[in-house]
Design a protein that fits this description.
184 residues; globular; mainly alpha
C-alpha cells in the first residue's frame, strides 16, 4: 500500500512551532480546548502512516456522512468543500462503498473505547492529530489503528486485486480507519 503522508514527512524538515490554542464549541463539546503543537500533517509517530488524510476520507465518503457535521469551525474549510455529508441522518449511500460499516457511538462508549477528549471516537482523534494536537491517548489510538490492518490481510486473501464488490463492508471499515482499500 502507498502511504501518501510518508513522502511529505520524509522530505520536510522537522519544524518547531508556537502552540496554537483551539477552542471547541460544538454539539458534543463546549469550552473544550487543546493546543496544536505540530505543523499540520507532519511529525507523526513513526508507527503511524495512514494512507488517507481526513480531507480525503471525507471526500470519499465515510461514516454515512453524519460524522462531524457540526465541527466545521474546528477544521480547515477545504476539508468540507467536497465532503460527502448529511447533517440530518446517517446515510450509508454516501459511503464510498455504499454500505454501512459503523457501530453506533453508544456501542463504542459501552466498550470503553472512547477517550474523554475525543467523544466522537477514532476519526475525531485522527483529525486533531493530523492538525497537530498531541495528547496522552496518541499511543493507544495508534495501536488501535495498527491492529485494524488485519482487515487488509483478510481482503487481500479473499478478494481479487481491485475487486471493490468483494467485502464492501470490510473495505468501508478500512477507509474509516484511513486505510485506502480501493486498490486492495
Amino acid at each position: 500500500m502507498k502511504h501518501p503522508v510518508e513522502p511529505v514527512l520524509a522530505t520536510l524538515p522537522e519544524v518547531e512551532m508556537e502552540p496554537v490554542l483551539v477552542v471547541v464549541n460544538d454539539l458534543m463539546q463546549q469550552g473544550y480546548f487543546y493546543y496544536l503543537t505540530e505543523p499540520i500533517g507532519q511529525n507523526f509517530h513513526p508507527d503511524f502512516r495512514p494512507d488517507l488524510t481526513p480531507k480525503e476520507m471525507l471526500e470519499l465518503g465515510v461514516f454515512g456522512g453524519k460524522y462531524m457535521t457540526d465541527c466545521k469551525d474546528e477544521f480547515p474549510t477545504g476539508w468540507f468543500i467536497h465532503a460527502r455529508l448529511c447533517p440530518e441522518r446517517h446515510d450509508p449511500g454516501l459511503n464510498y462503498f455504499g454500505v454501512s460499516a459503523s457501530q453506533p457511538l453508544a456501542y463504542w462508549q459501552e466498550k470503553g473505547w472512547i477517550y474523554h477528549e475525543d467523544p466522537r471516537g477514532w476519526f475525531q482523534w485522527y483529525c486533531r492529530y493530523y492538525m497537530g494536537r498531541r495528547c496522552p491517548d496518541d499511543n493507544r489510538q495508534i495501536k488501535r489503528w495498527h491492529a485494524f490492518r488485519r482487515h487488509v490481510a483478510q481482503v487481500q486473501k479473499h478478494c481479487r486485486l481491485g475487486d471493490q464488490n468483494c467485502r464492501p463492508r470490510q473495505r468501508q471499515a478500512l477507509l474509516q480507519w484511513a486505510y485506502d482499500s480501493r486498490n486492495i
